[in-house]
Amino acid sequence: MTTAETMNRAADRGQYRRPTASERSAGGSAKEAPQGRVSVAVYAEDLILRTGVVHQIRPRPEVELMDESEADRAQVSLVVVDMVDERTIQLLQRLQRNTSTRTGLVVGFFESGALQTMIECGVAAVLRRGEADQDSLVHLVTAMANGEGVLPGDLLGKLLDHVSSLQRTVLDPRGLSLSTLTTREAEMIRLVSEGYGTAEIAQKTSYSERTVKNVLHEVVTRLELRNRAHAVGYTMRHGLI
């Protein structure tokens, strides 16, 4: 079977190519990335896209390309596509189930509606293919390995607008927030941190003392804390109030 026939069959089945032994650097080993190097598996929808990315990052000492048999052990999975379509979503969802890897997306065309999909699929970084030179690819990979996220400026702006809209239109009307505390819980914990007692909190929030006690007890229990003071310390350390 020719290379072209193999690629066509893979595309028909919605498969993406993973690294092969012949595409790895001659002296590299996929079993364990050398100390300080980031192990990377590249997934691309066709040979041309994959070859371009591999050609860029293979010479860099910061990166260790993984063989197909070891791809699931990579620190970073790099998905290279023209656009986010149904096959790409299926791949991203499969990679999301692998908790040992973080996923980055190198994409040619990024539709505005794909932002929500990207979030749901756990994508940690996005790079437009037109900007994917060697340095930017290596920066993307190393940033993800360090637990960071990378987004083009315009997508970051859209993400912040999306979060703001979610808070305003969905969470606020229900008295919820993006933190682990509801708006009411956060307000009561904040008042505790300012030294107010149960009766004073009840007066300031227009709830009964019984409700205040129940709310504070729920926070302490749910977060597995010891008491109100512990709750104040915990929420302040984690930026919840």
From TrEMBL:
It comes from the Bacteria. Gene3D superfamilies: 3.40.50.2300. Residues 1-35 are annotated as: Disordered. It comes from Streptomyces pulveraceus. Pfam families: GerE. Keywords: DNA-binding, Transcription, Transcription regulation. Residues 174-239 form the HTH luxR-type domain. This is LuxR C-terminal-related transcriptional regulator.
